[in-house]
Amino acid sequence: MTGQILRWNLFIGGHLSSSVPVRLVERTDEYQVVWLETGTPMWRTDLPRGAHLRDIAPEHRPAQGYPARAGRWPMGSALIHQPAGAGHAVFWFFGRRRKFAGWYVNLEHRTHHGEDIDVADHELDITVATDRSWRWKDERSFADKTGHPAYWSAQKAAEIRAEGEHVTRLVESGAFPFDGSWCDFKPPSHWRTPARGPRPLRTVL
Question: pTM for the full model?
Answer without folding.
Answer: 0.96
